[in-house]
Protein backbone atom coordinates (compact mmCIF):
# COMPACT_ATOMS: atom_id res chain seq x y z
CA UNK A 1 0.00 0.00 0.00
CA UNK A 2 2.81 2.40 0.91
CA UNK A 3 4.62 1.54 -2.34
CA UNK A 4 1.50 2.45 -4.32
CA UNK A 5 1.29 5.78 -2.48
CA UNK A 6 4.91 6.54 -3.34
CA UNK A 7 4.26 5.71 -7.01
CA UNK A 8 1.23 8.02 -7.15
CA UNK A 9 3.15 10.82 -5.44
CA UNK A 10 5.97 10.43 -7.94
CA UNK A 11 3.55 10.60 -10.88
CA UNK A 12 1.85 13.68 -9.42
CA UNK A 13 5.25 15.32 -8.94
CA UNK A 14 6.07 14.62 -12.58
CA UNK A 15 2.69 16.03 -13.61
CA UNK A 16 3.39 19.24 -11.72
CA UNK A 17 6.78 19.57 -13.43
CA UNK A 18 5.22 18.94 -16.85
CA UNK A 19 2.48 21.51 -16.27
CA UNK A 20 5.11 24.04 -15.21
CA UNK A 21 7.05 23.31 -18.39
CA UNK A 22 3.88 23.77 -20.46
CA UNK A 23 3.19 27.10 -18.78
CA UNK A 24 6.72 28.29 -19.54
CA UNK A 25 6.35 27.11 -23.11
CA UNK A 26 3.06 28.96 -23.39
CA UNK A 27 4.66 32.22 -22.28
CA UNK A 28 7.46 31.83 -24.84
CA UNK A 29 5.02 31.08 -27.66
CA UNK A 30 2.85 34.06 -26.78
CA UNK A 31 5.90 36.33 -26.74
CA UNK A 32 7.34 34.96 -30.02
CA UNK A 33 4.63 33.14 -32.00
CA UNK A 34 6.08 30.89 -34.74
CA UNK A 35 5.42 31.82 -38.35
CA UNK A 36 4.13 28.38 -39.20
CA UNK A 37 3.80 25.32 -37.04
CA UNK A 38 2.10 21.92 -37.40
CA UNK A 39 -1.33 21.72 -35.84
CA UNK A 40 -1.79 20.32 -32.35
CA UNK A 41 -3.79 17.43 -33.73
CA UNK A 42 -1.03 16.43 -36.19
CA UNK A 43 1.59 16.50 -33.44
CA UNK A 44 -0.72 14.49 -31.22
CA UNK A 45 -1.36 11.87 -33.90
CA UNK A 46 2.38 11.54 -34.51
CA UNK A 47 2.99 10.85 -30.82
CA UNK A 48 0.20 8.29 -30.81
CA UNK A 49 1.86 6.32 -33.61
CA UNK A 50 5.10 5.82 -31.67
CA UNK A 51 3.61 5.40 -28.19
CA UNK A 52 4.14 2.15 -26.31
CA UNK A 53 0.76 1.67 -24.64
CA UNK A 54 1.87 -1.52 -22.87
CA UNK A 55 3.94 0.66 -20.54
CA UNK A 56 0.83 2.21 -19.01
CA UNK A 57 -1.09 0.30 -16.35
CA UNK A 58 -4.32 2.30 -16.03
CA UNK A 59 -6.41 5.24 -17.24
CA UNK A 60 -4.66 7.64 -14.86
CA UNK A 61 -1.24 6.95 -16.39
CA UNK A 62 -2.55 7.05 -19.96
CA UNK A 63 -4.37 10.36 -19.44
CA UNK A 64 -1.46 12.09 -17.71
CA UNK A 65 1.02 10.83 -20.31
CA UNK A 66 -1.08 12.01 -23.26
CA UNK A 67 -2.25 15.33 -21.85
CA UNK A 68 1.23 16.29 -20.69
CA UNK A 69 2.53 15.95 -24.26
CA UNK A 70 0.14 18.49 -25.80
CA UNK A 71 1.98 21.61 -26.90
CA UNK A 72 1.03 25.17 -27.81
CA UNK A 73 -0.86 28.09 -26.21
CA UNK A 74 -4.38 26.67 -26.52
CA UNK A 75 -3.32 23.10 -25.79
CA UNK A 76 -1.35 24.25 -22.75
CA UNK A 77 -4.39 25.93 -21.22
CA UNK A 78 -6.54 22.92 -22.11
CA UNK A 79 -4.05 20.56 -20.44
CA UNK A 80 -3.98 22.58 -17.23
CA UNK A 81 -7.77 22.73 -16.98
CA UNK A 82 -8.31 19.07 -17.88
CA UNK A 83 -5.68 17.69 -15.50
CA UNK A 84 -7.07 19.79 -12.66
CA UNK A 85 -10.61 18.58 -13.40
CA UNK A 86 -9.53 14.93 -13.46
CA UNK A 87 -7.46 15.26 -10.31
CA UNK A 88 -10.28 17.00 -8.40
CA UNK A 89 -12.96 14.49 -9.43
CA UNK A 90 -10.61 11.47 -9.30
CA UNK A 91 -12.08 10.39 -12.65
CA UNK A 92 -9.74 9.81 -15.59
CA UNK A 93 -10.85 9.35 -19.22
CA UNK A 94 -10.21 6.14 -21.12
CA UNK A 95 -7.88 6.17 -24.10
CA UNK A 96 -10.78 6.00 -26.59
CA UNK A 97 -12.62 8.86 -24.87
CA UNK A 98 -9.41 10.90 -24.75
CA UNK A 99 -8.91 10.57 -28.51
CA UNK A 100 -12.45 11.77 -29.19
CA UNK A 101 -12.09 14.62 -26.70
CA UNK A 102 -8.82 15.95 -28.12
CA UNK A 103 -10.06 15.70 -31.68
CA UNK A 104 -13.20 17.60 -30.70
CA UNK A 105 -11.47 20.44 -28.85
CA UNK A 106 -8.84 21.23 -31.50
CA UNK A 107 -10.84 21.94 -34.61
CA UNK A 108 -10.69 24.60 -37.31
CA UNK A 109 -11.88 28.18 -36.90
CA UNK A 110 -15.43 27.30 -37.95
CA UNK A 111 -15.64 24.91 -35.01
CA UNK A 112 -14.28 27.57 -32.67
CA UNK A 113 -16.94 29.97 -33.88
CA UNK A 114 -19.49 27.27 -33.10
CA UNK A 115 -18.08 26.94 -29.56
CA UNK A 116 -18.33 30.71 -29.04
CA UNK A 117 -21.95 30.61 -30.13
CA UNK A 118 -22.73 27.65 -27.87
CA UNK A 119 -21.17 29.09 -24.72
CA UNK A 120 -23.19 32.31 -24.95
CA UNK A 121 -26.45 30.40 -24.49
CA UNK A 122 -25.10 27.53 -22.38
CA UNK A 123 -27.25 27.86 -19.25
CA UNK A 124 -26.69 25.61 -16.24
CA UNK A 125 -30.30 24.60 -15.73
CA UNK A 126 -30.39 21.25 -13.92
CA UNK A 127 -26.81 20.29 -14.77
CA UNK A 128 -24.71 19.43 -11.72
CA UNK A 129 -22.35 22.33 -10.99
CA UNK A 130 -19.10 20.36 -11.31
CA UNK A 131 -20.19 18.98 -14.68
CA UNK A 132 -21.39 22.38 -15.87
CA UNK A 133 -18.14 24.16 -14.95
CA UNK A 134 -16.08 21.46 -16.68
CA UNK A 135 -18.08 21.79 -19.90
CA UNK A 136 -18.07 25.59 -19.68
CA UNK A 137 -14.28 25.70 -19.34
CA UNK A 138 -13.88 23.30 -22.25
CA UNK A 139 -16.09 25.47 -24.47
CA UNK A 140 -14.22 28.61 -23.43
CA UNK A 141 -10.92 26.97 -24.41
CA UNK A 142 -12.32 25.61 -27.66
CA UNK A 143 -13.75 29.02 -28.53
CA UNK A 144 -10.60 30.91 -27.53
CA UNK A 145 -12.56 33.38 -25.38
CA UNK A 146 -10.85 36.25 -23.62
CA UNK A 147 -10.64 35.80 -19.85
CA UNK A 148 -12.87 38.77 -18.94
CA UNK A 149 -15.56 37.81 -21.44
CA UNK A 150 -15.58 34.20 -20.23
CA UNK A 151 -16.00 35.29 -16.59
CA UNK A 152 -18.97 37.48 -17.53
CA UNK A 153 -20.61 34.61 -19.39
CA UNK A 154 -20.03 32.23 -16.48
CA UNK A 155 -21.67 34.63 -14.01
CA UNK A 156 -24.57 35.22 -16.40
CA UNK A 157 -25.23 31.56 -17.31
CA UNK A 158 -24.64 29.79 -14.00
CA UNK A 159 -27.58 28.99 -11.70
CA UNK A 160 -28.96 32.36 -10.44
CA UNK A 161 -28.88 31.15 -6.81
CA UNK A 162 -25.15 30.47 -7.10
CA UNK A 163 -24.47 33.78 -8.84
CA UNK A 164 -26.40 35.63 -6.13
CA UNK A 165 -24.42 33.99 -3.33
CA UNK A 166 -21.15 34.70 -5.16
CA UNK A 167 -21.99 38.41 -5.28
CA UNK A 168 -23.31 38.58 -1.71
CA UNK A 169 -20.24 36.83 -0.29
CA UNK A 170 -17.90 39.01 -2.38
CA UNK A 171 -16.27 35.98 -3.99
CA UNK A 172 -16.12 37.24 -7.57
CA UNK A 173 -12.84 36.90 -9.49
CA UNK A 174 -11.59 38.41 -12.73
CA UNK A 175 -9.63 35.23 -13.45
CA UNK A 176 -11.73 32.50 -15.07
CA UNK A 177 -10.08 29.58 -13.26
CA UNK A 178 -10.55 31.25 -9.85
CA UNK A 179 -14.11 32.30 -10.70
CA UNK A 180 -14.95 28.72 -11.70
CA UNK A 181 -13.51 27.37 -8.44
CA UNK A 182 -15.57 29.84 -6.39
CA UNK A 183 -18.70 28.76 -8.26
CA UNK A 184 -17.93 25.16 -7.29
CA UNK A 185 -17.35 26.03 -3.65
CA UNK A 186 -20.53 28.10 -3.36
CA UNK A 187 -22.50 25.26 -4.96
CA UNK A 188 -21.04 22.72 -2.51
CA UNK A 189 -21.92 24.96 0.43
CA UNK A 190 -25.50 25.21 -0.84
CA UNK A 191 -25.68 21.43 -1.23
CA UNK A 192 -24.45 20.94 2.34
CA UNK A 193 -27.09 23.40 3.55
CA UNK A 194 -29.76 21.48 1.64
CA UNK A 195 -28.61 18.21 3.22
CA UNK A 196 -28.59 19.79 6.67
CA UNK A 197 -32.16 21.01 6.16
CA UNK A 198 -33.31 17.57 5.01
CA UNK A 199 -33.19 18.31 1.30
CA UNK A 200 -32.97 15.81 -1.50
CA UNK A 201 -30.04 14.22 -3.26
CA UNK A 202 -27.06 16.39 -4.09
CA UNK A 203 -26.19 14.52 -7.28
CA UNK A 204 -28.23 17.02 -9.26
CA UNK A 205 -28.62 20.75 -9.11
CA UNK A 206 -31.37 20.64 -6.45
CA UNK A 207 -31.35 23.62 -4.11
CA UNK A 208 -33.79 24.04 -1.21
CA UNK A 209 -36.93 26.01 -1.88
CA UNK A 210 -37.46 26.53 1.84
CA UNK A 211 -36.13 29.82 3.18
CA UNK A 212 -34.30 30.04 6.53
CA UNK A 213 -36.75 30.56 9.39
CA UNK A 214 -39.81 29.22 7.55
CA UNK A 215 -41.88 26.33 8.88
CA UNK A 216 -40.82 22.82 8.06
CA UNK A 217 -43.70 21.09 9.87
CA UNK A 218 -45.26 19.75 6.68
CA UNK A 219 -42.34 17.35 6.14
CA UNK A 220 -43.04 13.98 7.79
CA UNK A 221 -40.99 10.86 7.20
CA UNK A 222 -41.80 7.16 7.48
CA UNK A 223 -45.41 7.71 6.35
CA UNK A 224 -46.41 9.49 9.59
CA UNK A 225 -49.56 11.60 9.21
CA UNK A 226 -50.56 14.02 11.95
CA UNK A 227 -54.01 13.78 13.47
CA UNK A 228 -55.96 14.58 16.60
CA UNK A 229 -54.84 17.43 18.82
CA UNK A 230 -51.39 18.07 17.39
CA UNK A 231 -51.22 21.88 17.30
CA UNK A 232 -51.57 23.41 13.88
CA UNK A 233 -51.72 20.08 12.02
CA UNK A 234 -54.36 17.84 10.45
CA UNK A 235 -58.13 18.25 10.27
CA UNK A 236 -60.08 19.74 13.22
CA UNK A 237 -61.04 17.09 15.76
CA UNK A 238 -64.72 16.37 16.41
CA UNK A 239 -64.96 16.09 20.20
CA UNK A 240 -68.34 14.35 19.93
CA UNK A 241 -66.66 11.37 18.25
CA UNK A 242 -64.21 10.80 21.11
CA UNK A 243 -64.60 7.71 23.33
CA UNK A 244 -67.68 6.37 21.61
CA UNK A 245 -69.82 9.40 22.40
CA UNK A 246 -69.08 9.50 26.12
CA UNK A 247 -68.28 13.21 25.83
CA UNK A 248 -70.89 15.74 24.79
CA UNK A 249 -70.41 17.54 21.49
CA UNK A 250 -68.44 20.73 22.01
CA UNK A 251 -70.75 23.76 21.79
CA UNK A 252 -68.13 26.52 21.71
CA UNK A 253 -66.23 28.01 18.78
CA UNK A 254 -62.98 26.73 17.29
CA UNK A 255 -59.96 28.87 18.17
CA UNK A 256 -58.62 28.60 14.62
CA UNK A 257 -61.54 28.92 12.23
CA UNK A 258 -64.28 30.39 14.49
CA UNK A 259 -66.83 27.69 13.51
CA UNK A 260 -68.93 25.90 16.12
CA UNK A 261 -69.07 22.18 16.86
CA UNK A 262 -65.37 21.42 17.07
CA UNK A 263 -62.15 22.74 18.55
CA UNK A 264 -58.64 22.94 17.09
Poorly predicted runs of 5 or more residues: 48-56, 207-235, 237-248
The number of distinct structural domains comes to: 2
Mind telling me the C-alpha Rg?
29 Å
Sheet of most strands: none
Strand content: under 5%
Classify the helix fraction into a percent range.
55-70%
Total number of beta strands:
0
Number of helices: 10
Mean pLDDT: 68
| Helix-strand string | HHHHHHHHHH
Shape: globular
User: Distance between termini?
Assistant: 65 Å
Assign the structural class, choosing from mainly alpha, mainly beta, alpha/beta, alpha+beta, or little secondary structure: mainly alpha
GO molecular function, one term: nucleic acid binding
InterPro entries: Znf_CCHC
Organism: Serpula lacrymans var. lacrymans (strain S7.3) (Dry rot fungus)
Region (Disordered): 197-233
Give a written overview of the molecule.
This protein is an all-alpha fold and 264 residues long. The protein has two domains: 1-106, no CATH class; 108-204. Helix content is 55%, strand content 0%. The protein has helices at residues 2-31, 40-50, 59-67, 73-89, 95-105, 109-120, 129-143, 147-157, 160-168, 176-196. Helix 1 packs antiparallel against helix 4, helix 4 runs antiparallel to helix 7 and helix 6 packs antiparallel against helix 7 (129-143). It is globular and about 85 Å long. The N and C termini lie far apart (65 Å). The relative contact order is 0.06. Residues 48-56, 207-235 and 237-248 have low confidence and may be disordered. This is CCHC-type domain-containing protein. Residues 253-264 form the CCHC-type domain. Pfam families: zf-CCHC. One of its GO terms (molecular function) is zinc ion binding.
